[in-house]
Amino acid sequence: MPIYEYRCRKCQSISSHFTRRVSDPLEPSCPACGSREMERLISRVAYHRSMKDIHEASGEPDEPHGLDYYKDPRNIGRWTEKKFAQMGIEMPEEVRTMIDAAREGELPPAVKDI
After folding, report:
1. CA 43/CA 17 separation, integer angstroms
2. H or E segment and range at residue 95
3. Beta carbons of 5 and 41 less than 8 angstroms apart
4. Which end of the chain is more exposed for a tag (fewer CB within 10 A), N or C?
5. With bands split at pLDDT 50, 70 and 90, how would you rate the model's confidence at 114?
6. What does the pLDDT read at residue 53?
7. Own/partner pairs for 73-78, CB < 8 Å, 24+ apart?
8. Are residues 33 and 70 in the same domain?
9. Do 105 and 55 share a structural domain?
10. Are 17 and 29 in contact (CB under 8 A)?
11. Does residue 45 sit within a domain?
12. Does residue 82 lie within any of the structural domains?
């Protein structure tokens, strides 16, 4: 199910258009001005790394890291999980929920406001 990007030749607006199959005809119109004078763009390719690849690239939480290591919320969660395990304390459900949300890209409200 491809998504194609187009630029309107009249207003220069860029929009994405979905089609179920590559073979389906697509006649996009500009959502901004309604023009059908559209040119197809070469889209960027998305590459998603696995959590294992991310962890390997980041290193272990106890290794010395620069401050950039902790700008990634996934690494903060890994450090927190490791510390709870080392202390033998069960992680509170609220902390688990925040870590899982951060791994999905959602920052807790207190962090969003900073």
Report:
1. 12
2. helix 93-103
3. yes
4. C
5. very low
6. 78
7. 73/102, 73/103, 73/107, 73/111, 74/102, 74/103, 76/102, 77/102, 77/103
8. no
9. yes
10. no
11. no
12. yes
User: How would you label 68-106 residue by residue, b for 16+ Cβ within 10 Å and e otherwise?
Assistant: ebeeebbbbbbbbeeeeeeeeeeeeeeeeebbeebeeee
Q: Which residue has the tokens 């690239």?
A: 57
- Tens digits of per-residue pLDDT, 7-65? 999 999 999 888 877 777 888 999 999 999 999 998 776 667 777 777 677 777 666 66
Q: Which amino acid is present at 106? A: E
> 62 with 17, same domain?
no
Q: For residues 82 and 2, what is the distance between their CA atoms, to the nearest angstrom? A: 40
pLDDT higher at 101 or 106: 101
Q: What is the pTM of this model?
A: 0.41
